Automatic annotation (TrEMBL):
Source organism (scientific name): Actinoplanes campanulatus
Keyword vocabulary terms for this entry: CBS domain
Alphabetized InterPro entries for the sequence: CBS_dom, CBS_dom_sf, Mg_transptr_MgtE_intracell_dom, MgtE_N_sf, MgtE_transporter, PRC_barrel-like_sf, SH3_actinomycetes
This protein's name: Mg/Co/Ni transporter MgtE
GO molecular function: magnesium ion transmembrane transporter activity
Bilayer-spanning residue ranges: none
Keyword Cell membrane: no
Stored Pfam families: CBS, MgtE_N, SH3_actinomycetes
SUPFAM superfamilies: CBS-domain pair, MgtE N-terminal domain-like, PRC-barrel domain
Example of a GO cellular component annotation carried by this entry: membrane
Length: 425
């Protein structure tokens, strides 16, 4: 193996996994430890990798030819693509061991006992070419501020509390690993955590990050996480979600709980959510976003490009600007048309968007059904369509991802294609 004799496993999280030809297989999400019935240290038996469609699979450690700070490389052969499931005698490093509160006993029984938090786990290659857990990196507890404590390494056999109940497990170091992920990847990681652990991590995220992650989760997971929060915190998170996503989530709750959370939200944040929830399910009004990019006709191309350059906008929302008379907040003044991103790139920065609008696409009405929306978007190759009321005021826009979310099966985020094996050349 082209690798060192000691590797720290938390540092592998997120690394790309390649086959011998340099093609990406997936990304490392965890490492699997097999417990022993004797006093021997646990054995690292493989890695957990995430592939396309968010499937997590098991990679036997014997298939790994190299791993360093840049990537993990596999040998040739057949790769089992069945979804990974942890066995009773196995633990996952990041999920089960990171952030555990442990006790480190003195070597040879001499000296004080120390208490700390697990921040990493080191594995070594022994004479039998087995990877075994040999070192535990521990951050010493210093009063209540564990994050400021000294980090040191202890031999595995000196650490107590690695195996057992998880009520002594925190979230800080796992969050440091998860924080490197995109919201969709973090959402997938949360789905694989035990419920209590998942709720602890979710509660530790800031409101904006948690809102982004919730939008990527299946509805039943969204509900379970939201109801586990204090109601005031839940209302704060809902305020930071896109109004259409917040409305969809609230629709999964009992009516009394909907009312309580909406009342706790700031009135200006709750108003668009209430409006979206008033529309009949399966219509443009119920699936649209009420916050597309809107400009008045006297805005310049430079202003339009500056608006859609905002990193917080999703690609489909940033693909066009809608032009309407003031006010620009929905419901706007009279809707005039749309200017697509490519047209903006072809025009001089000082050009006025009012002279560039495409008014040839008939807007949707709030009562337009999903089948009609899908047909019209496919006919005109659009990624978003405006929604107007009877007086032609712009109310919002339906985007292609809104349509897909409502056309796909409710459990599509958890769906795996039926593939069992893949041969790596």
């Amino acid at each position: 193996m082209t690798m060192g004799t000691r590797i720290y496993l938390a540092r592998l999280a997120g690394l790309p996994v390649f086959d011998p030809n340099g093609d990406r297989v997936g990304r490392v999400r965890d490492a699997v430890v097999r417990l022993r019935t004797t006093n021997r240290p646990p054995q690292i038996v493989g890695l957990v990798a995430e592939m396309a469609l968010r499937r997590r699979i098991f990679l036997p450690i014997g298939r790994v030819t190299s791993m360093d700070a840049e990537a993990v490389v596999l040998s040739t052969g057949t790769l089992n693509l069945r979804r990974f499931e942890k066995r009773p005698n196995e633990l996952l490093i990041l999920e089960d061991l990171l952030d555990r509160r442990v006790t480190v006993v003195p070597e040879h029984g001499e000296g004080p006992v120390h208490h700390g938090i697990v921040v990493d786990v080191g594995m070594d290659l022994n004479r039998n070419t087995e990877w075994i857990v040999t070192r535990i990196a521990v951050r010493e507890l210093t009063g209540r501020l564990a994050r400021r404590g000294h980090v040191y390494q202890a031999e595995y056999d000196r650490v107590r509390g690695l195996v057992g109940p998880t009520d002594t497990q925190g979230t800080a170091n796992l969050m440091a690993v998860l924080d490197q992920m995109r919201p969709a990847d973090m959402a997938n990681a949360l789905q694989h955590l035990p419920d209590a652990r998942r709720n602890e991590v979710a509660a530790a995220l800031d409101d904006r990050r948690l809102a982004d992650v919730l939008e990527e989760l299946p509805e039943h997971d969204q509900v379970e996480i939201l109801v586990a929060l204090e109601r005031e915190r839940a209302a704060d998170v809902l305020e930071r979600m896109d109004p259409d996503d917040a409305a969809d989530l609230l629709a999964e709750l009992p009516h009394t709980e909907q009312t309580v959370l909406l009342d706790l939200m700031e009135p200006e944040e709750a108003a668009p959510v209430r409006q979206l929830m008033s529309y009949q399910a399966g219509t443009a009004g119920s699936v649209m976003t009420s916050e597309p990019v809107i400009l008045t006709p006297d805005a310049t191309v430079a202003e339009a490009l500056a608006r859609i350059r905002n990193a917080e906008l999703s690609p489909v929302v940033a693909a066009q600007v809608f032009v309407a008379r003031a006010p620009m907040a929905t419901p706007t003044g009279k809707y005039l048309g749309v200017v697509h991103f490519q047209r903006l790139l072809r025009e001089p920065p000082a050009a006025i968007v009012g002279g560039l609008v495409d008014s040839g696409i008939e807007p949707l009405r709030t009562e337009t059904g999903l089948a009609e929306i899908t047909r019209r978007m496919a006919t005109y190759d659009l990624v978003a369509m405006p929604v107007v009321d009877s007086t032609y005021r712009l109310l919002g826009a339906v985007t292609v991802d809104d349509v897909l979310d409502h056309l796909l099966p409710r459990d599509w985020r958890e769906h795996d294609a039926h593939v069992d094996e893949q041969v790596i050349p």
